[in-house]
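User: I need a structural model of 5-formyltetrahydrofolate cyclo-ligase from Rheinheimera riviphila for a docking pre-check later this week. Nothing fancy, just the predicted structure tokens so I can convert them on my end. Input:
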Amino acid sequence: MQPCSWSLPLSDISTKRNQLRQLIRQRRQGLSAEQQQQAAIDLVRQFSTQPQLTKLQHIALYLSNDGELDTDPLIKSLWQQKKSVYLPILHPHKPGFLVFQQYRPDTPMISNKFGILEPELDPTQLKALPEIEMIGLPLVAFDKQGNRMGMGGGFYDRTLANAVFCQPAPLLVGLAHQCQQVEQVPVESWDVPLNLVVTPEQVVTPLAFSR
Ligand SMILES: Nc1nc2c(c(=O)[nH]1)N(C=O)[C@@H](CNc1ccc(C(=O)N[C@@H](CCC(=O)O)C(=O)O)cc1)CN2
Ligand SMILES: Nc1ncnc2c1ncn2[C@@H]1O[C@H](COP(=O)(O)OP(=O)(O)OP(=O)(O)O)[C@@H](O)[C@H]1O
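Assistant: Understood. Predicted structure tokens for 5-formyltetrahydrofolate cyclo-ligase:
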């Protein structure tokens, strides 16, 4: 029987994405504790070299999981500079979406269904997307065009699908280890591209966004 040829390219992309996701997750999980610590310190240094980032006051980040680049030192440095930091919370009513809530040193935290710490929901501390100036996104793989692939839940893609139309739009900054860069992320139509990627070693400015 003939295979249904028009469906092949679609399944090809999703197979490629899953294989790449597995490969890069193993790569970052293989980093030693020392390499992770150094990377987290280098991230703070890279961040501080970017005037377009250091001028910002309202910054969303994430708490690391699964070998992701550790954001703890960056968050502490931002708190010291009196910046407001926000973290994602799995949306309480809209499955697959995120909300962002302020994170302070004394914020009560709970573990979400993926085992990632998130602030306990407090509606008075939520921040709307147009008021967040920069979102630091976790990712599994990125390329120099600013394409990003995450853990496969589509949370950031869904939540940020309309954020590009916000006035002003939050700057979307991928945070990753250098070993997470690939030649070309297999892109899907819903993938939201990044304005910038910061690794412990470099800042990648996709051509489409360089000003
Ligand atoms: N640090 C961090 N926080 C984040 C994300 C992220 O990628 N990293 N997310 C980005 O969207 C959202 C959560 N999405 C996630 C999706 C899948 C898994 C995960 O570990 N999946 C496991 C299966 C776990 C299970 O089914 O219980 C896996 O694939 O092995 C984690 C987070 C919001 N917060
Ligand atoms: N804007 C959107 N609207 C509806 N569904 C979406 C949207 N974006 C992504 N999805 C769905 O989410 C699923 C996972 O998408 P994808 O593999 O791109 O996630 P990811 O980028 O790895 O995850 P994340 O954004 O959470 O880091 C896909 O099945 C996709 O159809």
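Before docking, keep this in mind: Residues 1-5 have pLDDT under 50 and may be disordered.
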